[in-house]
Structures are given as structure tokens and as C-alpha cells.
Amino acid sequence: MWSTVIQRPGHASHTVEERVDTRNGGTYLWCDCGAWKFQVSKGGCAHVKLAREQQAAGTRRVDTPMTPEQRETIAAAEAAVTDRPSRAAPSSVPRQSRLDLPILPMLCEKVAAPKGTVNALGVEDDASRRWPILTRQDVAYEPKWDGHRMIVEARNGNVRLWARSQRDTTASYVEIAEAFRFADGVFDGEVIVLDVDGEHRFNALQNIGSLTKQQRSDRLRFVAWDVLEANGEVVMNRPYVDRRAILEDAQEAMLGPWAKGTEARVVLSPSVRDGVALWNAVLTRGLEGVIVKPLRSTWKSNDRGIWTKLKCLRRSDMIVVGYTSGLADHGNVVVPFGALVLAEYDGEELRYAGKVGTGFTQTTVEQVLDTLRPFETATPPWANAGTVKKVLMSVGPRKVTWVRPTVEVVVEYQERGADGVPRFPSFKGMAGMREEASA
Description:
Blueprint: E1 3-6, E2 14-20, E3 27-31, H1 46-57, H2 68-79, E4 108-111, E5 139-144, E6 148-155, E7 158-163, H3 174-179, E8 185-193, H4 202-206, H5 213-219, E9 220-230, E10 233-234, H6 240-249, H7 251-255, E11 266-268, H8 275-285, E12 289-294, E13 307-311, E14 314-328, E15 333-346, E16 349-356, H9 362-372, E17 376-377, H10 385-395, E18 400-403, E19 407-413, E20 415-416, E21 422-423, E22 426-433
Parallel strand pairs: 4-13, 9-11
Antiparallel strand pairs: 1-2, 2-3, 5-12, 6-7, 6-8, 8-9, 9-10, 12-13, 14-15, 14-18, 14-19, 15-16, 17-18, 19-22, 20-21
């Protein structure tokens, strides 16, 4: 009998031991990571596989008979696999062999950043270090991905992808289904599409229909961040740290060859303990935000009171070029104001920047209309009829009252689409006046 210590780059060290199988008198390799028992049919966890390779190559780090004291230590570790600091205690919930699908995904509670955390340019300042939720020690932080939420069911070579609406979307993402052909479990994550620069953007996912077969193969990804079932056993009732360990330590066995390399179609979402560093990183890269997950939390269908979503929002000063009418009383009554029509200057060219209809109170609506009325005009700010038609089609059927491009407002938004128009904009206040001569 022998034991060895396995140290994978970027991972904690684990002990692998050769043990006697009392059922048949043979031997097997046991690992203190806990994931090995979910991967017996796959040849063991990643540490067991590495130990086999070292043994075959004659490079095993430790190759000595164990003392009784060592055996007692190993036995104690086996009785409480998650005793290490990076693991939570095993769940006392009775085991469930298979999960009933489809299932509603676990959700997040949205928390707004405190005032001053993000400045007008969308760049973090020192206030992020004063945000307590970013400095908790009992949670893990993961980036918020901007794609389509998906539950992947992979059993006996059959793969199905379930959308958040519980609709079967396997046919829409056959490349992802193919990537899970060797997996055995149920995985939670998100389908994303990379743009030409290698960044993931929601507008790239919206335009997936325009991609060639080769482009889909190159850019389509599934970001896995949780596991609900592994090798026939439901693990969703185990703590986050245990589920994460199963997902990380058994990645190759569960996800198959597509999980290898930087171009893998299935990738693991980063999970870190430094919330401030991740928050600053997602701001710098223009990502959507951060998800906060308690280390001891279980996975609960349709629950939004455990995970917390911190969204990164950006602000810009934009020019008002018009406003639309709106509807009230369940859409049956036309009211004077519905949304502001926005534009921005790109050099000397005035470009359409969408519309904003949220963030207003009755008082701010009256203030905005009082400010805009002196600048009302019958002429659109664009001389090109094609541009005006495009803007009117984007605005919709509401009547548009044009104004000279003089008044500026502050707009907060999540990100910009491929056309440069802000997504999910919200009105935050008046920014001032432009000089009409320059406008």
C-alpha cells in the first residue's frame, strides 16, 4: 500500500492512497478531495488520474508504507471528507439518486451599489473598498455572465439543454450538447457567444443566427458554475464549496475532452474570495457584474434570497433630440410623455443613441418637459431621410416631438449594444445645456 500527495497548479494539495477493496480483495485509489467517489466509472478524480500517471512514469512523490498513525489520519479524513478549511461539512440530507427535470433555476437578489461606488465614467474608485458586501469572508465571488441561463442534463450519452423557461433548447445549441457527450450529471451555467475580440457580449448572442457553422463552433461557449447531480447522485443539497470542488476536481471526467485548453467549449466560471479585485476587474473589462454566493449555501430551485447580484452600471451625458408620447391606464390613455429620444456626437456627426423611459417621477417629467418646450421644432435633427426613418422605426409607433439638440441629460445603463445604443438605460437627471451654435 502507498500514498502520495498531488499538487495541481492553482489548486490545493490532496492525498491519494492505495486501499484494499474488501468486496473483492483487490485495490483501488482513494482521494481526500471527495470527488473521486463520483468518478469511479470514469477512472477516478483528476488527482487519482495524476497519481496513476506518476506511478506509471516512476515519478510518484511519496512511495512509502503508511504508519498506523497515518492510516488513522486518512480514515478520519475519509469519514469527514470536507473537514479541510476549503470544504464545508457534508449535508445530512438523504441522498437522491436522480433529479427530476426540467427545474426552475436558482435566482439572485439584486443589490444596488452605494452612491459613489462607480463614478460618471463607469470606473471604480475607492468607494468599492468601503462596500461591505465585497469584503465578506464567508462567500465566494463569481463574474456575472451576460448570456442565456441554461441547465444541462447529461445522462448515459443523452444531452438536453433546459432554458430558464423550462423549454428544451437542445436543437438551438447542438454544439454545446455535443461538448457534454461524455458527461454524467446536471450542470448549471450560461450559454455565451464571443465577439471578434474574444469578449462575450449579449448582442453577439442575439446575432448568433448570422454566424457561419465554423464561427458558431469557434465562438459558442457554455460557462459552468454549478453542478446539481454528479454520476447518478444529486448534490444540490450539499454546500457551495463541496459542489464547487466536485465541479473543479472532476472537470475532465465530467465534461470530457472539450473541457481541455483555452478554446474549450465548456469552461468553468472563476470563483474567487477577493470581491474588490473581481469588482474592479469586471468594471475594467466592461462585464455585467458580480455574483455573491455564501460558501455554505445549497442550490435551491427558484430561490432568489441566497445569491446576490451586483450589477456594474455606467453613466453618460446624452443629448435630447425629442420625446415621445406614452400610454397610461393599462395602455388605454395617451399621455404627453413616454420617453426621451437621445443622441450623441461622434466627431461632428450626431448619432442616434436610443431612448430612455424609466427613472422618471411625475415631478421630473414636468421639469424635463418645461425645459424642452422652448426648443421644440418640426424638423428632425437629421437631414438624411433614411436616418430619420430608421430612428422612427426604432422609437416605435408613438408620436415624436422633435427638439433642437441643446439639452443634455444623465443616463445610466448596463452596456452598449453592437450599434452603440445603451442597453437598459435609466434617466438620472439633467446634465445642462449645450451651446446652440455648436449644436
